[in-house]
DNA sequence: GCGACAG
DNA sequence: ATCTTGTCGC
């Protein structure tokens, strides 16, 4: 487990954060198909919080894209650097996620985020932001609707309904990953096509509604948070609870 | 102005 | 995100 470091120049308020999004948005690459589903590595990232103590824990879990077997995992713990504001989630989650990703020894391959990519108020959600900062191909798979409504979609696994911007642009898709469950919301982050993002999501969810990447990352970051609360001060390393770094 | 609002 | 037991269903 590593200690989170907040990147230089991290925004201090909402106005600065929106300006960062508007500035970085142009760096998103939308002309690449991205990694082929089932080939190489796929990494899930997720974050858990202890609001009372202002603590955050992140996990990055690397899977073999073909077998979905765990290849490697890393966690990071530290203090929360930004409040939760709809549309600015990345500023709350990224410091922790970047720390966990940075602790990996193996190549992450495609990164699967909990949340949105382009289907965002300024078309620059968590997955797009992570992709731009790391250069890695990234997609967003959210559990709940956000700013874009969608029509009904079929009941079978693989059925979709588009998430459209006002100008008609398809920014994402509601995707049914299992029969009889609510859909997940897939959107492109960086260097991946929407078709490919949906194909990856389906492959990663052979049994449950959510992709194995997010299920595993969710489990690991919760464990890391519990461990940080249980075993606060690690002699020899900094204490994330007290913020001594 | 009011409500909605990823995690 | 997080607070939380039992319970319906495969």
From TrEMBL:
Cofactor(s) needed for function: Mg(2+)
Annotated binding of Mg(2+), by residue: 46, 114
Site entry (Interaction with target DNA), positions: 84
Catalytic activity: Endonucleolytic cleavage at apurinic or apyrimidinic sites to products with a 5'-phosphate
Keywords: Cytoplasm, DNA damage, DNA repair, Endonuclease, Hydrolase, Magnesium, Metal-binding, Nuclease
GO molecular function, one term: single-stranded RNA binding
EC number of this enzyme: 3.1.21.7
An example Gene Ontology CC term for this record: cytoplasm
Record carries keyword Hydrolase: yes
Gene Ontology BP, a term: DNA repair
Gene3D superfamilies documented for this protein: archaeoglobus fulgidus dsm 4304 superfamily
Function: DNA repair enzyme involved in the repair of deaminated bases. Selectively cleaves double-stranded DNA at the second phosphodiester bond 3' to a deoxyinosine leaving behind the intact lesion on the nicked DNA.
HAMAP family given in the database record: Endonuclease_5
Family: Belongs to the endonuclease V family.
Name used for this protein in its record: Endonuclease V
Organismal lineage: Bacteria, Bacillati, Actinomycetota, Actinomycetes, Kitasatosporales
């Amino acid at each position: 487990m590593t200690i989170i470091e907040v990147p230089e120049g991290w925004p201090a308020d909402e106005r600065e954060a929106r300006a960062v999004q508007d500035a970085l948005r142009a760096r998103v690459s939308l002309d690449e198909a991205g990694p082929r589903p089932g080939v190489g590595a796929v990494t899930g990232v997720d974050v858990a919080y202890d609001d009372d103590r202002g603590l955050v824990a992140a996990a990055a879990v690397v899977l073999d894209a073909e077998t979905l077997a765990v290849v490697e995992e890393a966690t990071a713990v530290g203090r929360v650097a930004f409040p939760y504001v709809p549309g600015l989630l990345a500023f709350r989650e990224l410091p922790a996620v970047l720390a966990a990703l940075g602790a990996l020894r193996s190549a992450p391959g495609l990164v699967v985020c909990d949340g949105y990519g382009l289907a965002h108020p300024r078309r620059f959600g968590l997955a797009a932001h992570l992709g731009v900062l790391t250069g890695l191909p990234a997609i967003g798979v959210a559990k709940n609707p956000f700013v874009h409504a969608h029509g009904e979609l079929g009941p079978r696994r693989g059925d979709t309904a588009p998430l459209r911007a006002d100008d008609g642009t398809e920014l994402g898709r509601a995707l049914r990953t299992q029969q009889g469950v609510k859909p997940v919301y897939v959107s492109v982050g960086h260097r991946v096509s929407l078709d490919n993002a949906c194909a990856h999501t389906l492959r990663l969810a052979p049994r449950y509604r959510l992709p194995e990447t997010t299920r595993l990352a969710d489990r690991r970051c919760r464990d890391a948070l519990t461990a940080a609360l249980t075993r606060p001060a690690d002699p020899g390393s900094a204490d994330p609870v007290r913020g001594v770094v």
